[in-house]
């Protein structure tokens, strides 16, 4: 099976990626430095889907993984402690993940970040499974923010199609599991979205929610990580301009986590160009903790983590460290990479706090 997977809706002109929207195309590669399109192999949608299903079917059933873990660690059979067995199964189940890059990322930058993320979180014996890059054509210009926002919204329709097909597949596997537990789905769906990729994500989730007639029969996504999200921080509040999308994110997902820092100068600068009445989620965190809704009064599966303490103080005086602004530092600092991996596993937030994973020690310096 391929190491790396990509779905792109960039227009390719003379074989090279552009910043224009084109038809959806599917790509795979085993090259660990595939930051140019010539390192990727174009495949048909059918071939991509077939390979992806085969890769997911190769993941172990969680019951098997859990039994093996109990036998190895305690000598106890899995059915001796059924509740702990279920908890372990949830955390050990493999993922089919998606990564949606952010604003001002050309093909090379997006591919490099995706491959690093895959190697650090999804690949290997201790990895979560496999990850697919959704590569959309950001215009890549600070002054082009407003048209880039339009670009992201236009690209969301293609990701909606992907989510809808996943939803239909999960319903099929849910019925299969009722007839034979061995036919149950072997992977959870997770999504990591960065910067304006979160705008594309919530637009796509909102459209999928409407298309599927707002179903509650299946949780489409297990974990969503909104990293440095360039979206309104009241997204999950009733009455905001994107409240329908926020409701879709919350209802179609088991847990949504927003990682933010008030030290993000990129979001601070961009807010001056397109401040639509609220603060940025990736700079200020949630407007209300926990968010509220008009039905239950609270949305307890959406939370945020202030990551300010993870990044060195130099970020406050030097715009770039090793060419990476704090806006993208979440993907390179071990503390935040570990945090992202543990969140995606489904570890409870109280357990993450007790283990000291929600705070770094790099800032402020004493």
UniProtKB/TrEMBL annotation:
Protein name in the entry: Alpha/beta hydrolase
Listed GO MF terms: hydrolase activity
Source organism per UniProt: Prosthecobacter fluviatilis
Lineage top rank: taxon: Bacteria
Keyword annotations: Hydrolase
Keyword presence, Hydrolase: yes
